[in-house]
Recover the amino acids of this structure.
């Protein structure tokens, strides 16, 4: 194991986040705070409790997931896309570093940043809304697994993308709608029966539901299905990354 | 001398069908400075990229020391340092961080003293805390060299290291290459500047259309291939060369003020004395003489032209 290489990539990626502190940490916090103010405090006060939970508190796990998912995707995608874009990828490709070590470096850094953002948003939420976390350990597990899984997905997007437009395409047309329709702002029990069935094909629902369960003990889908879905998603991402490195797809001629 | 790099029948065809390398075989002994010459698209960068692991060859094998670049990739890559052709750097990093990153990437623990030495050797130490974006093109080129040396490699590839670099810095680079060799490194460089190969290489390879046309000791190559010309300036301009001088295959200078005699300097008889006597017999009075040795560039072009024919 080339630990120095893993550490170098990790440190490099974290240093990039530190250089762009506003963009990396402050911007998601500000945008999420606005969600809390608008949906939690202003509109939320007019909405009745959902499953016995105040609406402002109800959306806290969903909003954290929204940021964690989008940040994991963009951080990991940008992390590997940039060296491809500016040509410095030659150094990674010619270094004695295995695909696994490369992934640990890039995905590890992206996931770390997302976890930090998630925790910062959680702390920010306490400034607006009062709530308790029922299963703290599970909350951290979900936060960790979601960050890792979407960072892996972001890594794939970063390799696949050949320009800036493609880099933003999948997060924009696929992930953002899935996150918004995955129960971030509502419980699927509020939807008509047909839409409840359709919603269950949305993988993000399982993440949001599981994460919300760790907060309040209630969920739209059974908790084991949430955990299972994350592991299936991680396995799928790892398999695709394995194929990418094996074939050299968009990395090595 | 021990062989450091061994390339055996390596071929590479890109997806678009372009055959960049065609059964290339080459041995590089330890401590050598080898210059690979060739026109654009000849296969120089593909060959280097195959050795470094950036491009996968379709056929053949490459060994660094006893390690195969495919099967023992970790060991071979630890031994290699690459300076790419393009100025590919992360512009927002500092010089010091860029070097530390490269050293770590190649599995080496931090070594402040060694990195300081490299930066001093490349006159970059004062710029160590500067963002790369603030550096001039020449400095960026040196940062690339410094990054390639950061893990103390034994085999260094310089892919057109002095492209776009001023004359003074180019000379400094050449000195550095010699210093690296004295430190035990083996250097392979590709260049468009024939002067560069002539100045620093021990051996020269000429590649074109993916085929290694020639590998030869630089001095032997120049001796073997070199034609020398004797330019004979005459007192009175001449319009045509007399037929009696046809045997010497003289060329008339466009001004009419000189004739040019081409000969092989290694031949037992150059024919100079006979030619000068013949001029005298034809009442052509010699005013001055000048010799010209063909450069490596001319040798290179003659090879490429021969290949194209």
């Amino acid at each position: 194991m080339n630990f120095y290489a893993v550490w170098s990539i990790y440190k490099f990626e974290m240093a990039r986040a530190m250089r762009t502190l506003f963009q990396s940490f402050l911007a998601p916090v500000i945008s999420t705070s606005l969600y809390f103010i608008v949906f939690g405090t202003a509109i939320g006060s007019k909405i009745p409790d959902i499953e016995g939970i105040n609406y402002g508190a109800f959306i806290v796990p969903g909003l954290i997931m929204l940021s964690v998912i989008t940040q994991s995707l963009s951080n990991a995608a940008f992390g590997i896309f940039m060296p491809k874009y500016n040509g410095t990828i030659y150094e990674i490709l010619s270094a004695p570093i295995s695909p696994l070590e490369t992934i640990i470096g890039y995905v590890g850094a992206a996931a770390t940043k997302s976890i930090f953002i998630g925790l910062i948003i959680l702390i920010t939420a306490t400034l607006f809304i009062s709530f308790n976390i029922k299963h703290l350990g599970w909350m951290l597990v979900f936060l960790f697994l979601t960050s890792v899984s979407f960072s892996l997905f972001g890594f794939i997007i970063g390799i696949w993308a050949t320009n800036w437009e493609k880099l933003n395409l999948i997060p924009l047309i696929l992930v953002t709608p899935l996150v918004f329709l995955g129960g971030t702002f509502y419980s699927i029990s509020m939807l008509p029966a047909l839409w409840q069935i359709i919603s269950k094909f949305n993988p993000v629902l399982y993440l949001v539901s599981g994460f919300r369960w760790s907060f309040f003990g209630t969920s739209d889908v059974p908790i084991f299905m949430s955990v299972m879905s994350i592991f299936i998603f991680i396995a799928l991402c790892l398999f695709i990354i394995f194929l990418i490195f094996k074939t050299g797809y968009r990395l090595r001629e | 001398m021990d062989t450091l790099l061994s390339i055996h029948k390596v071929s590479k065809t890109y997806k678009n069908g372009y055959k960049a390398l065609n059964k290339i075989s080459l041995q590089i002994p330890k401590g050598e400075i080898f210059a690979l010459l060739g026109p654009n698209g000849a296969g120089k960068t593909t060959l280097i990229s195959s050795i470094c692991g950036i491009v996968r060859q379709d056929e053949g094998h490459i060994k660094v020391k006893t390690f195969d670049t495919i099967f023992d990739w970790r060991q071979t890559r630890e031994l290699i340092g690459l300076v790419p052709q393009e100025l590919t750097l992360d512009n927002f990093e500092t010089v010091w961080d860029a070097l530390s990153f490269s050293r770590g990437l190649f599995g080496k623990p931090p070594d402040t003293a060694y990195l300081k030495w490299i930066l001093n050797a490349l006159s970059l130490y004062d710029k160590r805390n500067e963002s790369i974006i603030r550096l001039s093109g020449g400095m960026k080129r040196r940062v690339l060299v410094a990054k390639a040396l950061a893990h103390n490699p034994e085999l260094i590839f310089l892919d057109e290291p002095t492209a776009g670099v001023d004359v003074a810095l180019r000379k400094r680079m050449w000195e550095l290459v010699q210093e690296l060799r004295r430190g035990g490194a083996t250097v392979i460089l590709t260049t468009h500047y024939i002067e560069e190969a002539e100045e620093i290489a021990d051996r020269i390879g000429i590649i074109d259309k993916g085929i290694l046309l020639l590998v030869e000791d630089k001095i032997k190559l120049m001796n073997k291939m070199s034609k020398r010309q004797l330019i004979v300036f005459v007192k009175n301009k001449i319009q045509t060369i007399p037929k009696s001088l046809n045997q010497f295959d003289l060329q008339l200078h466009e001004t009419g003020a000189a004739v040019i005699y081409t000969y092989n300097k290694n031949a037992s008889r150059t024919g100079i004395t006979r030619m000068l006597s013949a001029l005298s017999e034809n009442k052509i009075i010699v005013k001055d003489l000048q010799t010209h040795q063909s450069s490596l560039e001319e040798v290179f072009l003659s090879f490429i032209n021969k290949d194209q024919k």
Summary: Residues 167-182 of chain B form the longest helix (16 residues). The domain at 227-293 of chain B is CATH 3.30.70 (Alpha-Beta Plaits). Chain B has a mean pLDDT of 88.
